[in-house]
Amino acid sequence: MADVVLKQIRKRFGPIETIHGVDLNIRDGEFCVFVGPSGCGKSTLLRLIAGLEDISDGELRIGGDVVNDTVPKDRGVAMVFQSYALYPHMSVFENMAFGLDLAKHSKDEQNARVMAAAKTLQLEELLDRKPKELSGGQRQRVAIGRAIVRKPRVFLFDEPLSNLDAALRVQMRIELAKLHEKLNTTMIYVTHDQVEAMTMADKIVVLRAGTVEQVGTPLELYHYPANLFVAGFIGSPKMNFISAKITQVSQQSVTLKLESGKEVSLPVDGSGLATADRVTVGIRPEHCSIADQDTALFTGTVEVVEHLGEAGLVYVRTGSDELFVARVAGDTAIKTGETVGIQAAEQDCYVFDTADMAKRRLAVDNAPLKAQMALN
Amino acid sequence: MAHASSLTRSRRRSAWIFLIPMLAILAVVAGWPLLRTFYFGFTDANLSDLSSYSFIGIENFYAVYDGEAYGLLIDPEWWQAVWNTLFFSVISVSLETALGMVVALVLNQNFRGRGLVRAAVLIPWAIPTIVSARMWNWMLHDQFGIINDMLMKLGILSAPIAWTASPDWAMSAVILVDVWKTTPFMALLILAALQMLPGDCYEAARVDGIHPVRVFFKVTLPLIKPAVMVAVIFRALDALRVFDVIYVLTPNNPQTTTMSVYARQQLVDFQEVGYGSAASTLLFVVIAFCIMAYIMIGRVRLDEGGH
Ligand SMILES: Nc1ncnc2c1ncn2[C@@H]1O[C@H](COP(=O)(O)OP(=O)(O)OP(=O)(O)O)[C@@H](O)[C@H]1O
Ligand SMILES: [Mg+2]
Q1: pLDDT at B2 (0 to 100)
Q2: How far apart are CA A344 and CA A358, in angstroms?
Q3: Which among A73, A355, B129, B295 is least buried, having the fewest CB atoms inside 10 angstroms?
Q4: Ligand 1: which of A12, A34, A43, A55 to mutate, most ligand atoms within 8 Å of CB?
Q5: CATH 1.10.3720.10 location in chain B
């Protein structure tokens, strides 16, 4: 078990820098998730920690020791690859035992460790099979088992669930969370799926183009996104953005005029803003409701209605280019072509300044988040 | 499968239509000569007059006249040729496989100028055997050869050796030239297999800190084994039929006479078409036997190995 600390980590492939000075502090036993769009450098960062790539600049510490120049095996990490990377000609048992040092571990100990891992992951029946005789989920479990038997200080996962179907993903997600609870080892987990990030992480690191956009707990990122990018990335369907003009500003609230002409007063810290500034208002689909046209924030024509069963998604054309999405009750009677009004509570709105930075929201009312923040 | 569907039937028909030209040509250029050779093996045909010959049964292989046995099966020169061939094949193919593996492993690494080196390595394979054998002939020449010259200057030899003529060295010289020529081919086939290997397994092994030697024997070797086995078959087939290197490098040396050389000698030099054909037929049988034994012992999967 160990903490992982990154200080101004940079990575260059030839002349091109892909990781631009990442600072990160992952505590011992923490489940840390790297999320970000494709190509943002999640895998690269993970491979830097594993030692599969050389660090161009900066300092990496695992368990207090600087490991920049330490070979992978002495870093005490185990990695689970997206493609599983199982040895195709070895049985499940051999795959799991292969990583154990023959010199350090006796045959009995190897057996014991593999059997224990197989039990945890319900692989006992499959120990004699070859990888090609396994389903995707089973292969994934073998790959995880191979990491477990080594008893590493840090687990590294690179999109381990992305090759699985939706149902299996949910199941494996829960199993991984249970595993983390049981082992209580530091885990670093890469995904581009923000649902995975939100459900599994103690700490989420949002990356964009090789830089860290924000680090925080899932609820922090949801309620206090640092900027427009994080706000758009966390949450599904993604947050709606509409532009507005400030008419009145104070440290307790900001009054804005929407493009629809409607004026609203939002409980956010307006310091740094001035009247007549153009800002972006963010509203999450789940905070929207359909309202009377005269009380609504704005109105629009319904273009598409998606029925998810437990809820419905209404896509409204409000004049701007993007469709506005509202999440409504599953039994909604709204139909394509209707004109509807959209309403949202003031405390649920987000405000971003011209540089896309978020303004502090003052009326967030979320009990678990408050409990978390009180703890820290 | 009582009735194949009409689609299956029409597919089969077009498959045959595409195959017929090739089968016809094979029958003419390979099947017919082969059958004729088989047949000649049971006749007393002579190169001086191929229009008249008669069927003599197995007399070319074994016959007894006046209490004395004649024929290929009891000809010590033939059995010497068989032994030479097997010895040559086993040693040269083993050396080529081992060296080819080393070369392939080196070429599989990332280094500057890799493409150039890969192309350069192929040169010995690209030179026609006659040319390279002639070249080696000069290099190994007992009086003017560069090999003797260098070894003497280095003080390893005190007197020049007649590499290709001496009974002690002739076979080694032939094997040396064959290994020099064919190792690139082996290396290329093994390199192709190496490049198919799943790269992520090696990264996993690196993170797990498994020693590279262990990775080679436990991961690389088992994974490329099918391809190597097939490459060895190709090479073994070639080596068992070896003719040109030996014909150019060490003509008329009983220490290096192989089955093919023996058959040619009978057919052309002694004009014994019947006897030479019998030797060719036996050559065919010996090769078929060797390859079958290899496939069964090595449990080679021809259907899987190629890719
Ligand atoms: N070996 C390499 N040589 C050059 N550039 C590389 C190399 N590996 C990665 N990159 C570049 O680094 C950037 C980050 O790649 P990386 O694989 O870390 O992305 P990612 O966040 O894991 O994306 P994805 O979600 O698609 O897996 C990309 O722009 C990629 O082109
Ligand atoms: Mg990746």
Answers
A1: 55
A2: 18
A3: A355
A4: A43
A5: 77-304
Count of positions (residues) in chain B: 307
- Confidence (pLDDT) at B259: 93
**CATH number for the domain formed by residue range(s) A4-231:** 3.40.50.300
| pLDDT tens, residue by residue, A269-305 | 998 999 989 999 999 999 999 888 888 888 899 999 9
Q: Which CATH architecture has domain A232-375?
A: Beta Barrel (2.40)
* Contacting residues for A203 by C-beta, under 8 A, at least 6 apart: A26, A27, A30, A31, A32, A33, A215, A216, A217
By the 10 Å C-beta count (0-12 exposed, 13-18 middle, 19+ buried), A155 is classed as buried
For residues B307 and B84, give the distance between their C-alpha atoms in angstroms, rounded to a whole number.
33
A176 touches A6 (CB < 8 A): no
Q: Is the CB of A13 under 6 A from ligand 1?
A: yes
Calculate ∠ Cα B270-B273-B275, nearest 5°: 85
Instruction: Read off the tokens for A77.
Output: 């990490």
Helix axes B170-195, B129-139, angle to 10 degrees: 130
**Residue B178: is it exposed, middle or buried by C-beta count within 10 angstroms (0-12/13-18/19+)?**
buried
CA of A285 to the centre of ligand 1 (A): 32
Across all residues in chain A, what is the average pLDDT? Answer: 91
How deeply is B28 buried, as exposed, middle or buried, from its count of CB atoms within 10 A (0-12, 13-18, 19+)?
Answer: exposed
pLDDT at B303: 56
Q: Taking CB atoms and an 8 Å cutoff, what residues of chain A touch B198? A: 83, 85, 88
Query: Which tokens is B245 given?
Result: 């290197």
Ligand 1 atom at minimum distance from A37 CA: 25
The CATH code for residues B77-304 is 1.10.3720.10
Taking CB atoms within 8 Å and a gap of at least 24, the contacts of A134-138 are A134/A92, A136/A163, A136/A164, A136/A165, A136/A168, A137/A164, A137/A168, A137/A171, A137/A172
Q: Which among A72, A86, A88 has the least Cβ separation from residue B209?
A: A72
Structure tokens at A125: 């029946």
Sheet holding A339-344: strands in order across? Answer: A288-291, A339-344, A298-307, A311-317, A323-329
Per DSSP, chain A holds a count of helices (H) and strands (E) of: 10, 20
Does the interface ipTM go beyond 0.85? Answer: no
Are B201 and A89 in contact (CB < 8 Å)? no
Closest C-alpha to ligand 1, atom 30 = A39
Query: How many other C-beta atoms can be found within 10 angstroms of the C-beta atom of residue A103?
Result: 7
Q: What are the boundaries of each domain within chain A?
A: 4-231, 232-375
